[in-house]
Design brief:
Elements lengths: L9 H4 L20 H16 L2 H34 L6 H47 L3 H5 L2 H43 L1 H7 L2 H39 L1 H6 L3 H53 L5 H42 L20 E8 L8 E8 L4 E5 L6 H8 L7 E6 L2 E2 L5 H6 L1 E4 L8 E2 H6 L7 H10 L3 H6 L7 E2 L8 H15 L3 E5 L7 H15 L3 E5 L3 H6 L2 E6 L2 E6 L1 H7 L2 H10 L1
Parallel strand pairs: 3-10, 3-11, 6-9, 9-10
Antiparallel strand pairs: 1-2, 1-4, 4-5, 7-8, 11-12
Helix pairs in contact: 2-11, 3-4, 3-6, 3-11, 4-6, 4-11, 6-7, 6-8, 6-11, 8-10, 8-11, 10-11, 15-17, 17-18, 20-21
This protein binds adenosine-5'-triphosphate (ATP).
Length: 608
Amino acid sequence: MLKMPGVGSRYGTMPLLRLKRSGGGPPKKGKVEWSDRIGTLRKIGAYLGVHRKLLALVVFMVLLSSAAGLLGPYLLGVAVDTYLVRRAGGNLLVLLAGLAGVYAVQTGATLLQHYWMIGVAQRTVARMREDLFAHLHAVPIPFYGKKQHGELMSRLTNDIDNVSQTLSSSFIQVFSGVVTFAGMLGFMLVLSPLLTVISLTVIPVMYAGMKWITARTGKLFREQQRHMGELGGFIEETISGQLIVKSFSRERERIAAFGERNGRLRAASYWAQTYSGFVSKLVIMLDNMSFAVIAAAGSLLAIQGIVTVGVIVTFAEYARQFSRPLNQLATQINTMLSAIAGAERAFEILSETKESDGDSADELAAVKGEIEFSHVSFAYGDKGDTLTDLTFRIKPGQTVALVGPTGAGKSTVVQLLTRFYEPNGGHIRIDGRDIRTIRRQSLRRHMGFVLQDTVLFDATVRDNIRYGRLEATDGEVERAAELANAHSFIAKLPEGYDTFIREGGSGISQGQKQLLAIARAVLADPSILILDEATSSIDTVTEIKIQQALSRLMKNRTSVVVAHRLSTIRQADLIVVLERGKIAEQGSHESLMERQGVYWELHRSKDG
Ligand SMILES: Nc1ncnc2c1ncn2[C@@H]1O[C@H](COP(=O)(O)OP(=O)(O)OP(=O)(O)O)[C@@H](O)[C@H]1O
């Protein structure tokens, strides 16, 4: 059966019964290098750079709100000294109005910075998602065979979501934390260097505590994301493979295997959350400590007349806010580390090499349809040769049937012809031209596929057929369905051509799906047809309909058939019999029967 790795036969390629996985996701690194993180930050920076102007506005608003936040406590201190301590005259109302104004500016600036930053963040992650999605279409097909689909989905959703949340809030918080802290320090130094030094004594304790925590949380968040991806992959696999799970009564094993993965995610999340939770507790404790230190030291200094009561009020107010920027820094650094971990996983996809056509490859104009394999050899990775020295040729409009036992290499021939894989030796030519010199998209545009496992999208029957040629009119779609013998069953559907097909075509039989696939190919009208005959038993009436439709489709069209039905094989112009990757024999049905070789044996056993 023709299997596009991870794309074609769902059940065929799925490791459903493999209970112990070595783990999906990126290879586990012992230590996260800062250079890796900086690389990721640079990439995020490049995305953010597009919104420079909005970011500049955000930065301005952060500066404004931080400045207002600093000015408030200072004015409060002045008020205390002026009106309470010295009982000096003056207009208290003006000062209070000034204070109200400062806090109003702070609130306004905070709201605006939030509003603009969300705009930047959402646009940035939307572009990341788009780039990732586009890149998924640019990577070669073997990539999909290596990755769990749900795990890939998790990178596009969970991981990007993490980046989105961080950009929306953490960025501002960290920046304003730094600005506020620096400003506060400046103010404090001007007011009383001695009290400043005393208040800062808690910082080394805080720093040591934070360092201890963040060293653990970064790694734990990566683990958490990795396990989340793995679990996502497992869920996706289970949902799409429910039929197989149920047919083999493997529900219990499946649930147990889920439990194992869920347990790993729980453990990773538990420790990640626990450690990151420590941060805020630590900060509150230090906050109280610094308040106590300022109150005690400040009172002593005030008694000696070194500082005024107003300065203590300002310091105490700062002390209350002191921990806020540091807290923000610390907690947000955790969130940011988690987001960087997510971004790293997302960018990992972007760093996958794209399917490259090479500089010399160009478009393929009209195709007559001659196909030639000349001494073609191929191996999947460093496994031994899957195909060895394949040579055969068909003229335009002819049909070649690939036959042979399972695993002989029939599908691999098709994978090479479509350039999903490249041969290690020999040449494949279409109309005498080596396909390596043809752009993949251009090559595939001349090909039509009718595969065993027809993939239908969540769309109407009409649009599913139209997938063959997007600009086709409704009339052309219906004409194609008629030629494909699909019209009569479509007409009986509740809403005819406008019936919506859900979840890959549930509610439509296997045979009907094939008829739709044939209609798609009829509409696409390709020069070369790639056909993977269904092995599954289909009722006789539908079988006849499919046969009829296929004969119409194959007429005057070069066809490469991974053949299972004797009728198709018999009518083929050339039968290539494969055995363990080599051509055992080739020729027409009559000539091969006459030889009484492998084909003759195969034919006899099928007949019997
Ligand atoms: N993506 C892959 N990676 C590694 N090995 C593969 C891959 N696809 C197929 N193979 C191996 O290559 C050999 C030929 O496989 P292929 O699918 O071409 O056989 P086939 O004749 O089409 O079989 P069937 O009739 O069962 O579909 C098999 O041994 C198979 O295990």
